[in-house]
Amino acid sequence: MSRRGIVAIALLGAIVVGSLALAGAFRRHPQPVPPPRVEAPCVVIAIDPGHGGRDPGGVAGDILEKDINLQIATRLAELISAQPGLKPFLTRSEDITVPNLDRLRAAEAAGAVLYLSVHTNSYSDPGVHGAETLVDDTRAKDDPSWILAEAVQKELVAATRARDRGVQTQALYLRHTKLPAVSVEVGFITAADEGRALLTPEYQEKVARGLLNGILSYLERVNALPPGG
Predict the structure, then answer these.
(1) Which of 17, 77, 130, 186 could share a disulfide with 88, CB 3.0–4.6 Å?
(2) Mean pLDDT of successive 10-residue segments in the chain (229 residues)?
(3) pTM of the predicted protein model
(4) For the chain, what is the HEC assignment?
């Protein structure tokens, strides 16, 4: 064999030996593997924009309750999304017909910890105005729904300066869920000043922030606030 061939074989051997040594080094000192990223569980808040689709809700001229409900609920969902550890669930995000019981079942399937239905009120007398929060009349006084209703009503009135019509009880479809559940009538579209205000983004922002503050107050009272919330 020529001298050049001997040199080539020696060089190849050195490369093989070096590769084996390097592989052994990696086996002895494996590269650290980052731990899998675990997403922190979120507290799901069900927000129900009342009515929709074929059901307009209250009507005042060309003003439809279903539209205002969706606008406020959508803004509330955005505010909830910005809170650490909270996640909104909207029972509808567009102008469609969704049966009430389907809304409740969807909220339960989403793992919601509470259910808040957003409504605007209407009445034949334009002098009637204000905000109120409703609890189903089958709920006992120690039901968490009452805590939720009181917290939401207090913060909604504080944010909007609307007339405080208090927490009321009546027969509602909310009896068909075990979730803490309330229906909020944020104001009257048939009231002169209040009805005009409810059409503005500025007042809807106040309403949404009041509802958010009520939800946060409730979660704090029942020790359900997520870490950092």
Answers:
(1) 77
(2) 48 46 50 61 96 98 97 98 98 98 98 98 97 98 97 98 98 98 98 97 98 98 86
(3) 0.83
(4) CCHHHHHHHHHHHHHHHHHHHHHHHHHHCCCCCCCCCCCCCCEEEEEEECCECCECCCEECCEEHHHHHHHHHHHHHHHHHCCCCEEEEECCCCCCCCCHHHHHHHHHHCCEEEEEEEEEECCCCCCCCCEEEEEECCCCCCCHHHHHHHHHHHHHHHHHCCCEEEEEEECCHHHHCCCCEEEEEEEECCCHHHHHHCCCHHHHHHHHHHHHHHHHHHHHHCCCCCCCC
What does the pLDDT read at residue 8?
44
**Alpha-carbon span 127 to 118, nearest angstrom:** 22
DSSP H/E element including 17:
helix 3-28
- 37: which 2 tokens? 């990223």
Q: Phi then psi for 116, rounded to 5 degrees?
A: -125, 120
Look up residue 168 and give its two tokens: 């009321």
Q: What is the pLDDT of residue 15?
A: 45
Q: What is the pLDDT of residue 226?
A: 87
- The pLDDT value given to residue 12: 45
